């Protein structure tokens, strides 16, 4: 019968499992081998995982590329912090304030802006399938997806919805209106997916209304429903799809009334 673990060993096991997603038995095997030094055991685990995946050279190359950009390999062996992620984006020649960065963060399932974990990067199904195993190949893949945003609705929706995750802080349910505006201007830029129709600059009107008539934070539901409303308003700028019985967030209901009365002079909506 194996001896009971000490509290320190139990904590080390918990940390190892949290970082690597391995089972406790595997965790204890690596930890015991490295004298219960958590950082050394985790590094050893990832090194052996990369070696055992030699049949997938793309994964191995992505693991090695990930290691190159770590700034704290001892304490955070499977995470790129803001500095490391920023250096990677710089080498990819993708500005942080460009929608291409949001595409990249969605592709790697980044948990927050400027943070990338190993599995999200090296284990990205899209990068693995595309054999994007180097900085130039990753750049080309991200830029190709960026170019598709205006034509691929599902891709745009994924990038858009994930963007809220990048901004939301722990224990908060909403993001500041100023933050939301910054991301909306990136996602609805003219060269991405412009939210405007021949006689209506929808994005500018929406931001004007939110800042001057509403002024509150933006929760996840409003963030998502804004994209749905944007799509429908581009298809039908008369807003005939809207009715008082619809289940839109109340702020969008108020925005529609504001458009009717203050921007269109009380004119009747076209049928």
UniProtKB/TrEMBL annotation:
<keyword id="KW-0833">Ubl conjugation pathway</keyword>
<dbReference type="GO" id="GO:0097602">
    <property type="term" value="F:cullin family protein binding"/>
</dbReference>
<dbReference type="InterPro" id="IPR005176">
    <property type="entry name" value="PONY_dom"/>
</dbReference>
<protein>
    <recommendedName>
        <fullName>Defective in cullin neddylation protein</fullName>
    </recommendedName>
</protein>
<dbReference type="Pfam" id="PF03556">
    <property type="entry name" value="Cullin_binding"/>
</dbReference>
<dbReference type="GO" id="GO:0000151">
    <property type="term" value="C:ubiquitin ligase complex"/>
</dbReference>
<dbReference type="GO" id="GO:0031624">
    <property type="term" value="F:ubiquitin conjugating enzyme binding"/>
</dbReference>
<dbReference type="InterPro" id="IPR014764">
    <property type="entry name" value="DCN-prot"/>
</dbReference>
<dbReference type="InterPro" id="IPR009060">
    <property type="entry name" value="UBA-like_sf"/>
</dbReference>
<dbReference type="GO" id="GO:0045116">
    <property type="term" value="P:protein neddylation"/>
</dbReference>
<dbReference type="Pfam" id="PF14555">
    <property type="entry name" value="UBA_4"/>
</dbReference>
<dbReference type="GO" id="GO:0032182">
    <property type="term" value="F:ubiquitin-like protein binding"/>
</dbReference>
<feature type="domain" description="DCUN1">
    <location>
        <begin position="57"/>
        <end position="260"/>
    </location>
</feature>
<dbReference type="InterPro" id="IPR042460">
    <property type="entry name" value="DCN1-like_PONY"/>
</dbReference>
<comment type="function">
    <text>Neddylation of cullins play an essential role in the regulation of SCF-type complexes activity.</text>
</comment>
